[in-house]
Amino acid sequence: MNKMVRVLNGLLNGIITVIFSSMVLLVFVNVVLRYVLDSGITWSEEFARFLFVYIVFLGAIVAHKEKAHLGVDLLVGSLPLGLQKAVYALINFIVIAVLYLFVDGALKMYQLNINNFAPATGISLSVLYVAGIAAGIIMIVISAVQTIQFVWFNKNAPSWAKSEAHDSSKEDRSS
What we know:
mainly alpha; 6 helices; elongated
């Protein structure tokens, strides 16, 4: 299982690197062509925009997986371990519900834009919404797995979570 996760992480990081490098190269070449030859690649700006959308959603997946999105954990971090798990489960349930709404909206936008095409590249605008749909589904799976791991198996705990040993030593001192 860990080997599969490492392979998927490497694949995700590799895809992000290739997309970012392609985007930088396209924009750089287009800028050089505009200033040197007074003409550019007509489709490069549009294609770079498409790549940017994908890199944003892939980055959101990485941040979600690493629990790197902004959050205020002062209150949750001060709770006992049992309550921390309950609050974590509730928070992730809300996250999953919002992600479901996001995926549903992205699916509707995909259907609306399936026959609309970008002017320079001719790519269907629905391709932009595929990134959101995929990212939303992947983040739902990640949220569910992380919740199950922490709440039921005490693995993959958030940085603010108390350990079992910390919680039981506190009870020993109060007796």
